[in-house]
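Example S7 (structure tokens).
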């Protein structure tokens, strides 16, 4: 098999830094501490042309070394092994791979015998996880797993995700034919630096094309989620989708409903948080997938807005502009908040005599956002934060007119930094007036924390000790005390108890909270 592999590999004369210096590549070698005296080097023998935008190639990271050691261990045991997939793609693009995967002729049993500790997460599909120890940037060490997959060919995919049967192989070329996209079908030999390309992935990287390996309809029929992955990869890298690949998505878009909500959620969240969210959602719309996975967002199109507040256009355009402002690595709750903050506008749209209005769209949108979060199986905490972002996004309009107590409660909303970030995005995607954002930012950062969230002067136990029985008015009385405290009109426990007495005196006997005794209480008694 070795001869066949070399026949199809991309060749280049022996690597010299002088030959490639003009392309900006950096050759990085490393010594393995755990592989005897062998010297492991990852040197990419590239064609004379460079990939557009390529500057440096960092191949000395701890993850890269660990992956190369796994490959070397497999080879020393007599098996064929390569780095494969997204890590090779990212290395060629000058990106730091998040993970390193290995493809090998070794069977899962072979892999588990060779490495002392493994996780058999997908043995039936030839997949074994090999844990390694790696250094973290903080100087600590933690566990990192490398996925090791046996070369294989796949049978039918009746569940739209996993093959019904797999046939293990000793041929790398057979293995890459089952993978999704050409740019993910490259193999890298970490010992010699050869990039093996059986699917045209290098050319597609250079042409900036996203294309399936083989027949697009077959690839998407095998796993319908690949349609969303095509959109995500094309958006992330700024690539065009190959015409046949694009048409296959258009034809099969309704099949996405056979994919679990959790898997759809994960792809949508990646689209939102990888720094190219606007392009991803434009592609979702162009392929027809948007109407299938998020019909609530599709309905934003054509919903006009009052131009004095939204000169940018309809709700869809406004939302796209917000998505464009999301930075790579932003939290998924902020990203979903940006996507869903105006989801209540289409059902509340009306044309009033004075202007277009969306009465209670924040409240309606909050309910819709909760339904979407539940559909996507988000956690309760995540759902709560997304709904809070949607529910409160209009409150910034009143921030300069709020009572002191109302403002302080607003500023202490959970994860208020996300509320601020969403409001800023909202402004920049419409009228671009940041005065309310700047006001809230200034108050938040100049007001002492103990004023925003002061220690309570009294609590329910104090009311019980004063002779009151717990009841519905407890919450109202404690809220009145907190209001006065936040407004600055009271500052001591004695003043708080006096305020309680004053308020209860104004109540009718039926409204009075239950008393342990009918004896009238003075402020001194309450103290």
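Recovered sequence:
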């Amino acid at each position: 098999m070795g001869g066949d592999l070399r026949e199809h590999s991309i060749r280049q004369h022996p690597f010299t830094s002088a030959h490639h210096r003009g392309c900006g590549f950096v050759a990085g070698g490393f010594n393995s501490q755990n592989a005897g005296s062998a010297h492991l080097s990852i040197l990419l023998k590239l064609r004379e042309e460079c990939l557009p935008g390529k500057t440096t190639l960092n191949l000395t990271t701890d993850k890269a070394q660990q992956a190369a050691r796994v490959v070397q261990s497999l080879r020393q045991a007599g098996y064929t092994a390569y780095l494969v997939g997204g890590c090779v793609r990212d290395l060629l693009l000058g990106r730091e791979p998040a993970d390193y995967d290995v493809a090998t002729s070794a069977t899962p049993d072979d892999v588990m015998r060779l490495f002392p500790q493994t996780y058999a997460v997908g043995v039936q599909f030839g997949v074994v996880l090999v844990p390694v120890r790696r250094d973290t940037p903080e100087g600590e060490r933690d566990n990192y797993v490398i996925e090791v997959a046996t070369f294989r060919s796949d049978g039918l995919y009746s569940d739209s995700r996993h093959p019904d049967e797999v046939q293990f192989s000793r041929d790398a070329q057979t293995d890459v034919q089952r993978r999704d996209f050409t740019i993910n079908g490259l193999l890298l030999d970490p010992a010699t630096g050869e990039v093996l390309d059986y699917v045209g992935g290098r050319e597609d990287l250079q042409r900036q094309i996203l294309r399936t390996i083989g027949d697009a309809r077959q690839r998407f029929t095998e796993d319908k989620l690949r349609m969303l992955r095509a959109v995500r990869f094309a958006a992330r890298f700024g690539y065009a989708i190959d015409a046949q690949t694009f048409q296959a998505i258009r034809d099969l878009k309704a099949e996405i409903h056979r994919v679990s909500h959790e898997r759809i959620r994960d792809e949508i969240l990646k689209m939102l948080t990888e720094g190219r969210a606007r392009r991803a959602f434009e592609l979702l719309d162009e392929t027809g997938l948007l109407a299938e996975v998020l019909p609530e967002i599709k309905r934003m199109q054509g919903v006009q807005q009052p131009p004095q507040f939204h000169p940018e256009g309809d709700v869809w355009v406004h939302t796209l502009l917000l998505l464009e402002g999301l930075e790579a690595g932003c939290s998924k709750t902020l990203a979903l908040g940006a996507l869903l903050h105006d989801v209540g506008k289409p059902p509340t749209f009306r044309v009033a005599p004075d202007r277009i209005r969306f009465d209670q769209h924040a409240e309606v949108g909050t309910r819709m956002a909760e339904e979407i979060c539940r559909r996507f199986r988000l956690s309760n905490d995540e759902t709560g934060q997304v709904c809070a972002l949607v529910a409160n996004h209009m409150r910034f309009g009143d921030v300069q007119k709020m009572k002191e107590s109302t403002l302080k409660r607003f500023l202490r909303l959970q994860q208020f930094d996300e509320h601020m970030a969403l409001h800023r995005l909202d402004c920049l995607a419409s009228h671009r007036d940041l005065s309310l954002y700047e006001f809230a930012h200034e108050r938040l950062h100049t007001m002492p924390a103990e004023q925003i969230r002061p220690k309570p002067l009294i609590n329910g136990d104090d009311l019980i000790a004063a002779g009151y029985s717990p009841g519905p008015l407890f919450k109202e009385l404690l809220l009145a005390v907190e209001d006065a405290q936040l407004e600055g009109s009271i500052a001591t426990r004695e003043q708080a108890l006096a305020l309680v007495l004053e308020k209860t005196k104004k109540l009718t006997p039926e409204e009075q909270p239950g008393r342990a005794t009918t004896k009238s209480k003075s402020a001194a008694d309450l103290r």
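Notes on this example. The CA atoms of residues 27 and 43 lie 6 Å apart.
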